[in-house]
Amino acid sequence: APPCQSGGLHRVETLVSIARITSLHAIAATMHVTLARALYQAALSLVGLHLARRNAQHANEGLSPAHPRYNDAAALLGGGLAHAAKSRTVSRRWRDFVVEERCGDAFGELRKRWHCGRELARLGRRDPCQALEVLGGGGSKGAANRGLCFFVTRCGQYIIKQESSATLRTLDNVAKTYAARASVQGSLLPRLVGAYTVRSNTTTTHWLVMANTFAGAPKIKAVYDVKGSTAGRRTRPKKGTLKDLDARDDAAQLRCYGSGEVVEALSGDTRVLEQLRLLDYSLLVGVCEPGLFGGWRAARYKKRDRGTRMLVCRDRGFLVVGLIDVLQPWTWAKVAEYYCRGALRGWRRISAVPPVFYRRRFLAFVSRLLDT
Fold this sequence. Notes:
PInositol-4-P-4/5-kinase_C_sf, Phosphatidylinositol Phosphate Kinase Iibeta, Chain: A, domain 2, seven-stranded antiparallel β-sheet
């Protein structure tokens, strides 16, 4: 063929090759988009299936009318939480019960600050079977031994805990100071949002409503209750909430970044507790599994001011930390326990020690544990 014709054929073949390559790229891009959409739809289907299964499971775990505290819980909801949007201390009649709100002025201001009054009011207008379920494991061992009940709201945001009359008397004395410190940005004090006494002709029960420490956090795979004491503070090989000696054994997994800010916040919180002569509080530490969407959920959790702190572990994963059980005063019973039990187990090892020493030991243990 003449040179001019061969050059033209070469250009045509080149254009055909380019067209084929372009079409192949277009087909590949279309396939990628189609595959991405298919994966997205599959993910949505899996999430929907998970939520459906979870809701079906929760539907069978509601508070049963056969529960011994069902009527008290119903009175607490209808006569107490249903009016949580208001901020005053009053007594209300609900059927055959009288529901008295304790420290209503202090808690009313806190509910306004934390924007939870309307949410609690909506919860209070629901049926107990739909609003509450018995907390798995029944709460703490000590409370179970005293016959006290733990409920958790079906949304998982709040815990309703039956308390002794002595605990609520302590709260009456410290409520204003507690509210002043808990309202400070960055405080790790537990989010107490209400306290109530429910009376009938035959019974009187006392209840404390608080925010759930782990609400909204990624999946929790292990929980530690840290006091700083060592006497009787081991759970393994049994199952349940791990304690100080277990945390010491797992210290390599609990080292994290940013623990200095946590210790600083704890120092301010425990200084107030020391001034109020309170002790026996714990740092609740939840170890979160990163999971597929763990980083995204952790970022969402960090944005909300919920009285807890999320830390990034050095070996992957997250920690959620917050104070609990802050209403135990230094009473004569604790003084007797300090001398009697301390003589047997060691004064530095037991939990019942004077508030000044308790705070110092607690902060030192937490600092070493989180590797400040």
